[in-house]
Write a structure and sequence with these properties.
8 helices; about 0% strand; globular; mainly alpha
Length: about 200
């Protein structure tokens, strides 16, 4: 008699590395290189950005992304651990870092759309969000928080939830809800923080 455990075809089958394990260091190097270029472009666009040592500023900003990725992965891992579910931390952190390159595409699209015809600007706004497409627009908390909301942001949220679903072996619904709420929370914090710095925060 066979004692094999039946396989549930609808259940996620575990989280794997985004690339072959031996190629993970190369993946990290490519992600770091891609973010270096994007950060350098953004800093170079700031008034007098080069006066403060753009290379050093870029290196500092890139280094700051490392604990950001690790802490994001850690918070989700601890959330599921508290519920008796194991999310493979390092594999998930690698996925989070990889999915962050979706933001790079969003930045590039918004930058390219600044001087584009109106129809292309509309398409870009749908894909990457309307933020920063109008350089003359006044900065606001709501724009800082939700200016990047487009299909690419929804893709990143969904992919992050999918990786959790694979890791904990549960359907997508729960991780998607958790990830969406976490994203909304960080966006609200960004909104209030910007408005607080501008002296217009609704928080007394």
């Amino acid at each position: 008699m066979s004692h094999a455990i039946p396989i549930d075809a609808g259940r996620p089958r575990g989280l794997t590395w985004p690339v072959a394990a031996a190629a993970v260091p190369l993946l990290y190097a490519w992600i770091a290189w891609a973010w270096w270029g994007e950060i350098r472009v953004q800093l170079g666009a700031l008034p007098d950005g080069a006066a403060y040592g753009i290379e050093a500023m870029t290196a500092a900003a890139l280094a700051a992304r490392i604990p950001s990725v690790l802490s994001e992965a850690g918070l989700y891992t601890l959330w599921w651990k508290a519920r008796g579910l194991r999310l493979p931390y390092w594999r998930f952190a690698c996925c989070v870092a990889t999915f962050s390159t979706i933001d790079l595409l969003s930045f590039a699209i918004r930058r390219a759309a600044v001087d584009a015809p109106e129809v292309l600007r509309l398409i870009a706004a749908v894909l990457a969000g309307p933020g920063r497409m109008d350089p003359a627009a006044q900065a606001s908390g709501s724009r800082a928080a939700f200016g990047s909301l487009g299909l690419l942001t929804l893709l990143r949220v969904t992919m992050t939830a999918w990786a959790q679903s694979r890791g904990i072996g549960r359907p997508l619904g729960g991780p998607l809800l958790v990830t969406t709420l976490a994203w909304l929370f960080t966006r609200l914090i960004a909104w209030w923080s910007v408005d607080l710095l501008r002296g217009t925060s609704p928080i007394p």
